[in-house]
Amino acid sequence: MKVLVLGGAGYIGSQAVRALSARGHQVWVYDNLSMGHRQSVPSNQLIIGDLADQALLDHTLLLHQIEAVMHFAAFAYVGESVHHPDKYYQNNVVNTLHLFDALKRHHIRKIVFSSSCATYGIPATIPITEETQQHPINPYGRTKLIIEQALADYAQAYGWSYAALRYFNASGASADGSLGEDHTPETHLIPLVFHAIQGKIPYLEIFGDDYPTPDGTCIRDYIHVEDLASAHVLALEKLADRTHLKLNLGIGQGYSVKKVIETVEKITGKKVPIRISPRRAGDPPELIAAPAKAIRELNWKPRYIDLESIIETAWRWHRDHPNGYGKMSKS
Ligand code: UFG
Q1: Known catalytic membership, residue 162
Q2: CA-closest candidate to residue 163, choices 208, 112, 125, 209
Q3: Which of 183, 205, 169 shows the shortest CA–CA distance to 318?
Q4: 48 membership: H or E segment, kind and range
Q5: How far is the CA of 328 from the centre of ligand 1 (A)?
Q6: Which of 140, 211, 222, 255 is catalytic?
Q7: Which end of the chain is more exposed for a tag (fewer CB within 10 A), N or C?
Q8: Exposed, middle or buried: residue 63 (CB in 10 Å: 0-12, 13-18, 19+)?
């Protein structure tokens, strides 16, 4: 299939690009490189462009005769979304609706959309199934839910097929060590734990140790990026006429912030300097997926099913690329 991957130079998108190409799809990447990295995708597949640039989008969809899109191009910092909701509604909602207009103009009816466990807010029960009520508690989660709802309406009206994939916490790096996490600013837990042991930050702040969880710190379901990527490819290939998929992508295991720190210490043999800080706005105490539906419907087989193996890949990346994609150094 001829696929355009919006945000395909980002952390998760670049893994999907690689997985799609490995399956024989023809892939182009559309990315404004605001968060993505030129080095993370083959240069002959990269179109540098903004989601807001309707003319370039039209040109790209037409030129490459695109048949399906994967849409990763979004801002995804929960904390930032609380303080700058305008940025989130503009890009994640307004620009995405413009993308949908373009898809409509070009009669493209297959879309795989990056949604989030943030659409569930504070779930009434754990683990979270696809039927769990979606009540997001931060602007980021609301932007993702709005687009899920728009997709359902557009799909109904225009005969689209779509998969809304609700990721839990994307983590880890590619097994061959060539693709990994490099955000500026970095806000995610696992990379920041490495930054703390590498001396790039003085200590890791634990945002709240008074949550109603066994050790008082937040619990998340960490899913390896390569497993996320494989689910995207399977979802795309599953999109037949009027297929509407809403799937949770996690491994079904929750780990606390303290457990993540402990695992990093075990793998690296280094002590993580920590400081307890106040809770971060918009953080739910516990998010764990029930991934059974994705496993069943996609015949998806996540390969990384424990935190240790995920963190090992992340450590290799951070050890060998202490400056991320900026200066690729090999130790
Ligand atoms: N945390 C810390 N210290 C840090 C960074 C994070 O204690 O320096 C904690 C957070 O409070 C949270 C956990 O570690 O409890 C994980 O935080 P991340 O920032 O790594 O990830 P989030 O759970 O906030 O965010 C992820 C995705 C979002 C998605 C969200 C759903 O990155 O895209 O899950 O809540 F929306």
Answers
A1: no
A2: 112
A3: 183
A4: strand 46-48
A5: 26
A6: 140
A7: C
A8: exposed
